[in-house]
Amino acid sequence: MRHVLKVVLVQLPIPPLGPEIIRGNVPLAPAYLKHYARRVAGVGAEIEILPADLADRAGDALLLRELSQRDADLIGFSCYLWNVERSLWLAERLKEQQPEVRVVIGGPEVTLDNTWVVEHPAIDWAVVGEGEATFADLLNALTADHRWLQHPGDLPPIPGLWNRAARSYGGVRPQLPSLNEVGRVYLDGILDPRWHDTLFLETIRGCLFQCAFCFYPKNFEGLRFMDDNLVLANLDLAHQAGISEVFLLDPTLNQRRDFLTFLELLARGNPERRFSYSAELRAEGIRPEHAAIMKAANFTEVELGLQSVGRDAQELMRRRVNREAFEEGVRTLLGAGIRVRADLIVGLPGDTAETIRQGFHYLLSSGLYSEPQVFRLSVLPGTEFRLRSKELGLDYQPHPPYHVLGTSKLSIVEIACLMREAEILFRTQFDPWPVSEEEFSPTILQQRGSFWEIDLDGPQPTELPDVQIAHTLWIKAQHFEGRANDVRYWTDRVINENPHVTLWIVLDISDAQTLPKADDVETIFRACYDRAHSYWDWYFAPELPPGPSGAKRVVVYSSRSLQGRRGWLDRRFSPPADLIEAPECRTTGRRRRRKPRDSGNQS
Ligand code: SF4
Question: Among 402, 418, 373, 393, which Cα is nearest to 543's?
């Protein structure tokens, strides 16, 4: 009997910044691939989307075990900024264990100019651009002839597919004619909106704008739509499922000519306002009649990009802002009771420290936002900025998130200072710790991730739970002084097998007779960072000193009152560790604010 091709599709989440339950990693791209391959292209393969409880919670070692146990012929990874390094790490380990398994990658990180990805030795094939039809063709070819699994380099060219062994690209793939081909992933039960309490709806693919920092328009030509009756069927499903949000993925909701009619359709699809809508749009052109229907449809929040008020930056990013129209649009939305998240970018070519500050103050003084979002520019592969980076004087990280490290008008320090300034001005933290000092306790950390309690003076635990994506190492000891290497042993045990998880190391000094010395804490901190970096490590790397770290955090914790010693201890441990006293112990004394951080990238 003929062997049925077995495929597993994996979409890994944005890792948490600390112990936190992950939400929002909706595997829409894998669902599209599965739906198109099975229902449109009629591929006879067995396709599993890695379930959310594994994809969103498991640490690296557990994921590896689960994937290898599946004994798949082909593993597909959807690669985004935040998961590409972890996906490739997994692919590499998987191939060490099972050299016969084949790996295909796709997603926005897969562009032919992103050579560290498409040349990675762990991948066999890469889907460049719109993936559904290319992926289906690949499965059809592998189903028709299993020899290509043994000899991936010999696979005949497929449009849209990069073949690493053959170092060949099959040429540009024609686009799908409409979104009707993929618009039934919820209706056909491939995704259940109740899993995430949200239905992600893509009614348009493509963007008429050409922002130079954005990869999206390079991926698609023109606009493709989902038919109105299919939109309504999806909304009816959201209604029946009782979910609370429909998230419209359309890159700019009001780019469509029939915007007003489309809003009426959305209102019709939510007659009892059971769920809310959120979307991205441009403020320019929003009129009272739009806002009124949006309100009637139950839009609660929109995100829009101001990005920069600097003329030169606007020219270079090909995104001119008509201030009058922008102000009118935002006021109209706010006046209708719709929250507005307004974005600014720091580090755009053409901007100076002065024009960036003008942007902060313009937003602040005009009050044209409900929530400000200030991002550091990411010089993304496949974008115009990446292509012109030399000419524009853009220096950027070679790893995701490809943060800008300098421009011809801004140094790395100026960019970091401006990010910090924005947090102070807007009185916010763009990336706060997910567990505040007030709620910091073993119980909370245990609820939100995996937890190992280790007593350095007690017997070694014989059984420890699997490491999840957010892990806490809670260390107790009678004597902490000179014990850095003992802590390091446990740190290595976690990170060696799970280099991409978020790790918090808590030194519980509540019952300790000797405290760690500053050198001990430094050694533990180094044990975390003197190794290959993960996503958050790179993300925070351009921080100003004393900068916190990234995916690993060291905390010195006491459940007993530190009383008058707090200031002294704070100076002793911080940085690189944070000192936290159990909330019930804190009667007086200052609350240390977490150091400011910057945020991710724009749409
Ligand atoms: S940033 Fe938004 S509006 Fe600009 S090109 Fe990208 S998707 Fe279109």
Answer: 418
Atom of ligand 1 nearest to the CA of 282: 3
Does the pLDDT at position 601 exceed 60?
no
Largest CA distance in the chain: 77
Contact indicator for 5, 45 with CB cutoff of 8 Å: yes
* Cα(319)–Cα(252) distance, integer angstroms: 13
Tell me what pLDDT residue 547 has: 58
Q: Is the CB of 253 under 6 A from ligand 1?
A: no
- Give the pairing of strands 74-78 and 224-225: unpaired
Q: Which domains does the chain have, with CATH numbers?
A: 6-169 (3.40.50.2300), 193-426 (3.20.20.70), 437-585 (no CATH)
Could you tell me the pLDDT band of residue 587, with boundaries at 50, 70 and 90? low
Compute the average pLDDT of residues 126-131. 96
> Considering the entire predicted model, what is its pTM?
0.94
Summarize pLDDT for 19-51 with one digit per residue, the tens.
Answer: 999 988 999 999 999 999 999 999 999 999 999
Residues 424-442 pLDDT 10s: 999 999 988 999 989 999 9
CA 208 to centroid of ligand 1, rounded, Å: 8
Cβ(28)–Cβ(513) below 8 Å: no
- Testing ligand 1's pocket by substitution, the residue of 202, 208, 211, 316 carrying the most ligand atoms inside 8 A of its CB is 211
